[in-house]
């Protein structure tokens, strides 16, 4: 005998399950189409997964542009960040390390199993250590001992030999760059990467410029970047201006660096927020990997139209602002770049599109730039709240 009550109960249960499934499906559609930005939803739905790459090296480059909503809304411009922290080595320096290693292998300077050396504040070293491991080479990194300790730990975890040195002038034989150069000279078959003067750095970023042009469909008014070696701003500026010479290239220069005055006045000398004059200590900044007090071969090749100054206070506040409002956890050089993008947007006025570089993430800066205790020592604890940009001063 058929249990009609049982059938009825089963039918009701099935109907309830279908209704729940339909309700959930409608919720997902509503969430994607109504609650999330339409541009995000559409891009996610239409995005095609890329083909597999041969190795970790194939994942370098072709990083996305991220619309920084808070900065865009506050300035009336479209401010986009090139998400270089999504490279497999975690920074924009992956591109440079790959190009240097590829070129030296192709020329025969570097042989499989050989040694590549560099002096760096951290990110280039991490990228070189990763790329060297991927091609079967070894890596030696000399770095200042006041750089964030997690960078040295990461380098060691990647298999690099690391030497930490006291900060000294570039003219001193114990400067990390000079120590790395000497190690290469003393080791048969070794190659000194020489990221500051090696124009492979610039050449790597011609591709970055072309990517930005394609991602913005050529609708770009300004590119903003700091300079650590000068390679990023040189390569991107050359790449973009070859496509449209009217694109403005703006240098974002931190306190303690000389490049702002080189661009604006033609003379290298440093600036400090508090003193407003030449410093006895030209490295008086908490930012790492950005700013120069000499003219490198890479920066000399940059096509820069203007420059803005960025104080430590502005950089620290910007890093906290982007995490609070956009969920972006960035390093100090990326924060400098975003301050520069806001200043460029104010100078251009609403309705323009500006691209900057999100060089690396905040995880490499936990012991310094993102450490409350460290910031408190220098009276740099972030105090700004909300979405306003009053903490960004004049250019």
Automatic annotation (TrEMBL):
SUPFAM superfamilies: Tryptophan synthase beta subunit-like PLP-dependent enzymes (SSF53686). It catalyses: O-acetyl-L-serine + hydrogen sulfide = L-cysteine + acetate. Its cofactor is pyridoxal 5'-phosphate. InterPro entries: Cys_Synth/Cystath_Beta-Synth, P-phosphate_BS, TrpB-like_PALP, TrpB-like_PALP_sf. The keyword Nucleus does not apply. One of its GO terms (cellular component) is mitochondrial outer membrane. Its EC number is 2.5.1.47. GO terms for biological process: cysteine biosynthetic process from serine. It is a single-pass membrane protein. Pfam families: PALP. It is found in: Mitochondrion outer membrane. PROSITE patterns: CYS_SYNTHASE. GO terms for molecular function: cysteine synthase activity. Its main location: mitochondrion. It is an enzyme of class 2 (transferase). Residues 57-360 form the Tryptophan synthase beta chain-like PALP domain. Keywords: Membrane, Mitochondrion, Mitochondrion outer membrane, Pyridoxal phosphate, Transferase, Transmembrane, Transmembrane helix. Belongs to the cysteine synthase/cystathionine beta-synthase family. This is cysteine synthase. It comes from Tetradesmus obliquus.
């Amino acid at each position: 005998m058929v249990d009609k009550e049982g059938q009825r109960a089963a039918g009701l249960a099935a109907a309830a399950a279908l209704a729940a499934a339909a309700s959930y499906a409608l919720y997902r559609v509503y969430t994607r189409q109504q609650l999330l930005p339409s541009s995000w939803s559409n891009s996610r739905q239409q995005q095609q997964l890329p083909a597999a790459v041969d190795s970790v090296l194939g994942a370098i480059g072709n990083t996305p542009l991220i619309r920084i909503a808070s900065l865009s809304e506050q300035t009336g411009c479209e401010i986009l960040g090139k998400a270089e922290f999504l490279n497999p080595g975690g920074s924009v320096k992956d591109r440079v390390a790959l190009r240097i290693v590829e070129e030296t292998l192709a020329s025969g300077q570097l042989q499989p199993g050989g040694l590549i050396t560099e002096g760096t504040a951290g990110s280039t070293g991490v990228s070189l250590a990763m790329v060297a491991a991927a091609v079967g080479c070894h890596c030696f990194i000399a770095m200042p001992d006041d750089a964030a300790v997690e960078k040295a730990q990461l380098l060691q975890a990647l298999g690099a030999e690391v030497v930490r040195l006291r900060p000294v002038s570039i003219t001193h034989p114990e400067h990390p760059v000079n120590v790395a150069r000497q190690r290469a000279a003393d080791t048969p078959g070794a190659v000194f990467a020489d990221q500051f003067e090696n124009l492979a750095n610039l050449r790597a970023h011609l591709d970055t410029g072309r990517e930005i042009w394609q991602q913005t469909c050529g609708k770009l008014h300004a590119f903003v970047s700091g300079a650590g070696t000068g390679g990023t701003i040189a390569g991107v500026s050359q790449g973009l201006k070859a496509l449209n010479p009217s694109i403005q290239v703006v240098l974002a220069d931190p306190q303690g660096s000389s490049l702002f005055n080189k661009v604006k006045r033609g003379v290298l000398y440093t600036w400090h927020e508090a003193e407003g004059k030449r410093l006895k200590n030209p490295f008086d900044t908490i930012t790492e990997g950005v700013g120069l007090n000499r003219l490198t071969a890479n920066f000399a090749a940059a096509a820069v139209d203007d420059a803005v100054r960025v104080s430590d206070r502005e950089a620290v506040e910007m890093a906290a602002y982007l995490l609070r409002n956009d969920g972006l956890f960035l390093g100090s050089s990326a924060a400098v770049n975003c301050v520069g993008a806001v200043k460029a947007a104010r100078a251009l006025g609403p309705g323009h599109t500006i691209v900057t570089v999100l060089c690396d993430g905040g995880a490499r800066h936990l012991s310094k730039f993102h450490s409350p205790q460290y910031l408190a020592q220098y009276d740099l604890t972030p105090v700004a709240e909300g979405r306003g940009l009053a903490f960004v001063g004049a250019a």
